[in-house]
């Protein structure tokens, strides 16, 4: 910070494992996964017949999300199948966003030096806000996209699902099918860049404010970014749920049948 604010979208790898770069984002993602697995393990082991306040809060939260998923899909069997994915996406994004507010982000790391010994070294942090790196939101978007498309094919069958996109009954239906194909692939961009852009913008805003006015001014913006973090996690999970509902819906004109 003494030399000013340094912003870089490309993450500098800390090391390489089997030729693959290990970046601060990878380490933070692993940390998020470990925290979620640990929480699930110990929460599952501590369940009681007469629940305490913590268990009641967890059960109400999980039950509320499950009931909403069941109402949206209008099928308990489908809700049981897709609820784990929706809840996992929400919790992973939410915890990743919350960890991005911790002081350890981009403050603890190592100083690297050029291999040839010439030039100045630079600081590489151990931790970096997960969703401020486009690779993670894009990966989540790809998982959501593949789940939606595969579920539509599995539920309706390849030919019926394909009829949503290839319809030769009329020029208008054919044009609508082409737009549906473009819209489906556009979800990859909209899902990933919405999450990435909001989190990165908030992260940079807080950094800039803390650099120039480091006392009380960042607090209102920090509270607002906490709200944004929750909303972005909910929006990503809800859009995945609604895309799933659309994918398993009957093609237009076949609802009555």
Distance from first to last alpha carbon = 65 Å
Which geometry do the CA atoms define?
globular
Rg measurement, Å: 22 Å
**What is the SS-derived class?**
mainly alpha
Describe the main β-sheet briefly: 2 strands, antiparallel
Residue share in helix = 55-70%
Catalogue the unreliable spans. none
Total of DSSP H or I helical runs spanning 4+ residues: 7
Mean pLDDT: 85
Please indicate the count of domains: 1
In what order do the strands lie side by side in the largest sheet? 1-2
Order of helices and strands: EEHHHEEHHHH
Q: Give the amount of beta strand, in percent.
A: 5-15%
Oligomeric grouping of the chains: single chain
Number of strands: 4
What does this structure look like?
The chain has 257 residues and is mostly helical. It has one domain. Helix content is 65%, strand content 5%. The strands form two sheets. Strands 1-2 form a two-stranded antiparallel sheet. Strand 1 and strand 2 form a beta hairpin. It is globular, with a radius of gyration of 22 Å. The relative contact order is 0.12.
Describe this structure in a few short sentences.
It contains 7 helices and 4 strands. The chain has helices at residues 24-45, 53-73, 76-99, 135-156, 158-162, 171-212, 218-248; strands at residues 15-17, 20-22, 109-112, 122-125.
């Amino acid at each position: 910070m003494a030399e000013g604010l340094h912003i870089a979208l490309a993450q500098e790898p800390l090391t390489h494992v089997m030729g693959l770069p290990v970046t601060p984002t990878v380490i933070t993602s692993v940390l998020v996964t470990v925290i979620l697995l640990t929480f699930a393990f110990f929460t599952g082991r501590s369940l009681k017949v007469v629940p305490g306040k913590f268990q009641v809060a967890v059960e109400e939260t999980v039950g509320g999300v499950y009931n909403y998923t069941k109402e949206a899909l209008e099928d308990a069997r489908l809700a049981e199948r897709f609820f784990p994915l929706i809840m996992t996406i929400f919790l992973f994004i939410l915890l990743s966003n919350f960890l991005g507010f911790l002081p350890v982000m981009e403050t603890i790391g190592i100083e690297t030096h050029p291999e040839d010994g010439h030039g100045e070294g630079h600081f590489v942090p151990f931790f970096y806000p997960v969703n401020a790196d486009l690779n993670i939101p894009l990966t989540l978007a790809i998982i959501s996209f593949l789940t939606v498309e595969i579920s539509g094919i599995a539920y309706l069958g390849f030919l019926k699902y394909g009829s949503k996109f290839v319809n030769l009954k009329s020029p208008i239906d054919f044009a609508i099918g082409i737009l549906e194909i473009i819209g489906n692939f556009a979800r990859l961009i909209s899902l990933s860049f919405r999450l990435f852009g909001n989190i990165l913008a908030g992260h940079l805003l807080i950094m800039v404010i803390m650099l120039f006015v480091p006392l009380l001014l960042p607090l209102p913006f920090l509270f607002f970014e906490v709200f944004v973090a929750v909303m972005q996690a909910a929006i990503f999970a809800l859009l995945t749920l609604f895309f799933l509902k659309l994918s398993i819906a009957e093609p237009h004109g076949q609802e009555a049948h």
